[in-house]
Amino acid sequence: MTDFLLIMVTGLGLGALYFLAASGLSIIYGLMGVLNFAHGAFMMAGSYAGWLTMSNLPSGLSVATRLLVAVVVAIAVGAVIGLLVEVVLIRPLYRHHIQQVLVTVGLSLASVAAAQGIWGADPRTVEKPEWMGGTTVVLGARLPNDRFVFILVALAVFLGLLALLHYTRLGLIIRAGVENRTMVEALGINVHSTFTIVFALGGAAAALAGLLYSQYAGTVSPAQGGSLLIYAFIVVVIGGMGSLVGTAVAAVAVGLVQQLANFYAASGVGDLSVVLLLALVLLLRPTSLKGAHA
């Protein structure tokens, strides 16, 4: 019973990280039709921004305080990078999907090379608050505290994005612009600036995911964003391209399947089980590759 509870909580925590990584990817594709292969670069930027912030703040501050400041800095960095990428690279290429893929793949490769050139290819250790590195005993199981943080943050982001899209004027404009951009522009609304905000939101969510994943792994490295991007794409495809609710459900499923397979089968089988889950979903529901709005 204790082992099962531990697996479930760690699986939910991992799923929360996958959701944070995939949420920005999902809203950018679902609302703008842009398949952003540079999303891993956004996550890498967030993890390095957090690491640099924590390393350069006064050592007199507690690790938890430095982490909170790092979260704010990482989100801001991710939003700015997302904004710049949309304005400079993506905006001229709307409705040119092949060119979008080539540009974002090139940006992803260039960002990894730049990070390796500046900080090296070796992982750098990240400080973790003492409480997050500890455990809490629940029903006899020692549960990692950081998983609770990941779950709460993911839940807050999920509810916040849903509220933004369905209960604000900005969300109304975004959804209307996706359905009929010409009509919205005829009403005097600047759709381009609205889509820039969407890209900035996606960049901010990715940067937050990158920072929290560095807390999970204990290190930052140039390849970290790329490895997390693979799971983000799997989650988005399983959940339905562009469906935020589907992305959340798929992230939980992927995290739980991975942890259960690793524990009850063998270490490493979890990755294979996730790929098999993806293949099963595509066979039974090939429309997962088509856009669906949350």
UniProtKB/TrEMBL annotation:
Entries under Pfam families matching the protein: BPD_transp_2 (PF02653)
InterPro entries in alphabetical order: ABC_transp_permease, BCAA_transport_permease
Membrane topology label: Multi-pass membrane protein
Record's subcellular location: Cell membrane
Keyword Transmembrane among record annotations: yes
Keyword Transmembrane helix among record annotations: yes
Superkingdom, natural source: Bacteria
Segments passing through the bilayer: 6-27, 34-54, 66-89, 101-121, 148-168, 189-216, 228-256, 263-284
Keywords of this entry: Amino-acid transport, Cell membrane, Membrane, Transmembrane, Transmembrane helix, Transport
Family indicated by similarity: Belongs to the binding-protein-dependent transport system permease family. LivHM subfamily.
Protein name: Branched-chain amino acid ABC transporter permease
Organism field: Intrasporangium calvum
